[in-house]
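re: ur question from yesterday

yeah so i grabbed the chain u mentioned. its 294 aa long if i counted rite. heres the sequnce exactly as i have it in my notes:
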Amino acid sequence: WKTPARRRSGNRSRASSARFAHLFGCRSALQHMIIDTHGHLYLDQFDEDRAAVLGRAWGAEVDVVVMPAIDVPSIQQAVDLCEEYDGLYAMAALHPSETQEATEEDFEAVVNWCSHPSVVAVGESGLDYYWDRSFDDRQKRFFRKHIRLAIEADLPLVIHNRDAAEDILAILEEEYVRAEVPEKMRGILHCYVDPPRIAERAWNLGFYVGVGGIMTFSNSDVDQYVKEVPLEHIVVETDSPYLAPEPNRGDRNEPAYVRHVAERLAEIKDLPLETVAEVTTQNARAIYELDDAG
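ran it thru and got these structure tokens back, copy pasting raw so excuse formatting
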């Protein structure tokens, strides 16, 4: 189903799902497939076995992976994979760490990619205060440019946040007030690790929170934070190949492992896995505007 429209089907048939579940030893057949809302499948860590990685994902009943960009070449790589494999979608953006040397021409390339039918979001953009604070102003400037682009292009914005939640939310709130059509501001706060008040401010601006491997770590408080966030505001993710969840912590992460994230989320919420799969998948389809076609 390589359709040219932005709103595209991302749902594999139940017969196909059952076949992959049998082949890859999936533990139970879910009525609702799981969406990995954030995975870098174009990176060279997957060059040797990408098809097998996707096979394991389908076996774990993960039938859609959305790939965030980190720089301009990565957008092309992600779009190429969308043409090669079913169930993949791309984003376009400059990762905050790339903004130290990014040019206006780079950003114009991002703008141009946003009209491509495989691109369903602007991302990942945001602020990263962990590694290097010497170019905070450039990060903030490019973040604002991405926010405005997402609103203008009427696409969701996927936000990278590392040790910068307060500044990210302050900038989002300023841009919301500035926007002519603020209702177009929406997206995902990727790799959510902050107290519930951060999640509440995010969803008041139209953002879901993306939970992943860190939520499963025994030395993390994220599970307690997530307990206070309504499921209706949550999507699940891997951030592959990084941050593999328990019981695969320390290994290369891959989309199949988002099932572990969903299972842990079900435990935290004291809900059936089926409910978590259904609601988080509905949330992901809504934010990325993916059809739920049988």
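noticed a couple things. The mean pLDDT is 91. also Residues 136-153 form the longest helix (18 residues).
anyway ttyl
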